[in-house]
Amino acid sequence: MPSSAPSLLSRRSWPETRRISEILRKETVGGALLLLATVAALVWANSPAADSYTALRDLEVGPHALHLHLSLGTWAADGLLAVFFFVVGLELKREFVAGDLRDPRRAALPILAAVGGMAVPAVIYVAVASRAGGDALHGWAIPTATDIAFALAVLAVVGTHLPAALRTFLLTLAVVDDLLAVTVIAVFYTDTVQVVPLLGSLAAIALFALAVQRRIRSWWLLLPLAFGAWTLMHASGVHATVAGVLLGFTVPVLRSRRAGGPDAGPGLAEHFEHRLRPLSAGVAVPVFAFFAAGVTFGRLSGLGSALTDAVALGIVAGLVVGKLVGILGTTWVVARLTRARLDPSLSWWDVVAIGVLGGIGFTVSLLIGELAFDSELRAEHVKVGVLVGSVVASLLASALLRARNRAYRAIEEAEAVDADADGVPDVFQGRGV
What we know:
The protein is mainly alpha-helical.
């Protein structure tokens, strides 16, 4: 292979590597809180006080006049997750405007891997769930989403010595994955659309965009515009989290248009992300998980019977097998078609580990499951499938990542790479970064 051949998953720039490390530290805490919230919901829902959990989840609050008299579970799914998707929108825009992925050659792989990582699980789910009949195929999109918080938390805890390129790859893949997931929600899980509220929401988003493009940070102006956009989007019949993504896309990444280019400095996107990421990872996602994950196994006549449902089996197969095949297969095809080679510092086992890790589908998978099925029993089966598939994927990924982590730790100890006085590791020098 000639040295001029393009390289897959090559090392990112030092600023990007440092930024990814900071995100990983925050998401590790968020992932821990998400796990605690899930365990708490499962314990409470299967305790003698299970009725109080259901009563709390179904407690309705909010103004009737604005059609916002919703249950706490719905507030978590429609409201708090809008904050999560707003941060997703900020992160995705930042990646493609000022991050290393502004280079189309670098952006292509995680985008294609995200598409493959969604298409293959959907196909596997349809193949397995089709024998269930009825409305089973409505849940085709459930195993297509990767949970950012859980996946990054596992990677941060287990893969402390893994190359930063893999972390960037997973983060970008998961963000693109969530963007595609919210697009699927808007297109395939919207029954009816009320045009007037939708236009009103888009108008509020346009006003929000005008304000942030003028670098206005006043919460008393931006917050009402964002809430108005969310409220009208909710009233339109389109899932309200779509408003969160669209609002995130409007926020400028660079400090000044006149300065131009990625060297213009950080803009409002970084400011908002710094403020809202702790709220998203530490509050919004864990609270949603608490209300969404509380499946009562007693009503299912046992865990085993739940997993006899083809819907649950399709979800498990899609998450555990589909994600791996989709992500790994797409990466291999890209390498073959472009005659690219994996970066010399990496192994294909690293890509296998990331593919398995992508099978941790929790937050968005549960959300799609709620939208896909009206039957309470089938909705409970969906939760079981998502929980089992995510646990299996996390255990397999942890085992693979631990093995790869030991290998890279040995390499680091052998090379003993030091940092210069400027704080930038030697390995990043001489690369124009």
